[in-house]
Specification:
Largest sheet: none
Number of helices: 12
Distance between the termini: 25 Å
Number of domains: 1
Shape: globular
Helix content: over 70%
Oligomer: single chain
Radius of gyration: 18 Å
Structural class: mainly alpha
Strand content: under 5%
Number of strands: 0
C-alpha cells in the first residue's frame, strides 16, 4: 500500500511534467526548459540534503566520470522526449517511452555481456511488437515525432544502465544532486548561455511546475521501489499510459487510438515477463 501511495504521486508528477512541457513548449526552447528544470531543482535538492540526517556527507563521490556519462545520456533522452512532446499524442509518447527497459535488456547483453535467455528474447519480442502497434511504421502516422520518442527511450535505457552502476556506491540524493548540477551546465552549453527569464507569470508557473514535477517523479518512484519489488512497481507505473491518454483526450482533443493502447499492453507484457523471469529463484 505504501508503494501504491508513492506511485500515485509518481503518476501525478509525470503527468504534470508532460502538461507543463506541452503548455510552454512553444514559448521556451527545449534546451531552455531542461536548463530551467535543473537550475530550479538544484536549490531544492541542496535544501533537502542539508535538512536530511546524513547531510552533505552523502554527496561525496569519486565517480564523477560516470555521473557525467549518466547525465549526458539522461539530458539527451529528455531533450528527445520534450521535442517529441509537441509532435505526437501524449499516449503515443508515453507508450514508446515504456520501451526503455526492453532496450536495457538488449544493451546489457551487447555492452555488459549479460546472457540472453528464452524469457528475455520473448520479452524483447513482445516489446518490439508493441512498438509496431504504437508507432505504426509504413503508415502516415509514423514520422519525426515517433523517431524522437524512440530515440529518447534508447537514451533513457543507457541512462538506466549507468544509474544501475552508480547505485552500487552512491545514494539517490547524491545522484539527483549531481544530476541538477551537471544538467544545468549541459543545458547552458546546448542553449549557448543562460536561459531567458519567462516574462509572464503563466509561463513562469509552468516552468516551476516542470522542475518540481520532475524531482517529485524521481523521488516518488525511488521511494516506491524501497517498499515493493520491481515486479509490482513497474505494472503500477504503466497506469501512466491510460492516465495520460485521458489527459490528451480531455485537454488537447487528441484521438484515443486503440492501437496505441494495444501496443502499450504488449510493451507492458514484455517488461513484466523480463522482470518476473529475472528475479532470483
Amino acid at each position: 500500500m505504501r508503494a501504491a501511495v508513492w506511485m500515485v504521486g509518481c503518476l501525478f508528477s509525470f503527468s504534470i511534467m508532460a502538461i507543463s512541457g506541452r503548455e510552454i513548449g512553444d514559448t521556451l526552447g527545449t534546451a531552455e526548459l531542461l536548463t530551467w528544470r535543473s537550475l530550479i531543482g538544484f536549490p531544492i535538492m541542496a535544501l533537502a540534503i542539508a535538512l536530511s540526517p546524513a547531510g552533505f556527507s552523502q554527496i561525496r563521490t569519486t565517480r564523477f566520470p560516470l555521473h557525467i556519462v549518466r547525465n549526458l545520456f539522461h539530458f539527451t533522452g529528455q531533450y528527445c522526449w520534450f521535442f517529441a512532446l509537441g509532435l505526437i499524442p501524449l499516449a503515443q509518447l508515453f507508450a514508446l517511452e515504456f520501451t526503455s527497459p526492453i532496450w536495457v535488456a538488449v544493451l546489457a547483453a551487447l555492452l555488459l555481456g549479460e546472457r540472453f535467455t528464452i524469457w528475455k528474447v520473448l520479452a524483447i519480442a513482445f516489446g518490439f511488437a508493441g512498438v509496431l502497434f504504437v508507432a505504426q511504421p509504413g503508415t502516415g502516422a509514423f514520422g519525426p515525432g515517433q523517431i524522437w520518442a524512440l530515440s529518447s527511450a534508447v537514451f533513457f535505457a543507457c541512462q538506466m544502465i549507468a544509474t544501475k552502476k552508480l547505485t552500487e556506491t552512491e545514494s539517490v540524493p547524491c545522484i539527483l544532486f549531481y544530476m541538477t548540477i551537471f544538467q544545468s551546465f549541459i543545458g547552458m552549453a546546448v542553449h549557448g548561455g543562460l536561459p531567458s527569464v519567462p516574462q509572464d507569470l503563466w509561463t513562469l508557473s509552468w516552468v516551476v511546475a516542470l522542475a518540481v514535477g520532475s524531482l517529485c517523479a524521481h523521488f516518488c518512484l525511488t521511494q516506491a521501489f524501497t517498499y515493493a519489488d520491481a515486479s509490482l512497481v513497474v505494472p503500477m507505473d504503466f497506469f501512466r499510459l491510460p492516465l495520460i491518454a485521458l489527459v490528451g483526450v480531455t485537454f488537447y482533443a487528441e484521438p484515443l487510438d486503440p492501437l496505441i493502447l494495444a501496443g502499450g499492453a504488449l510493451i507492458f507484457l514484455g517488461n513484466f515477463i523480463n522482470i518476473r523471469m529475472s528475479r532470483p529463484a
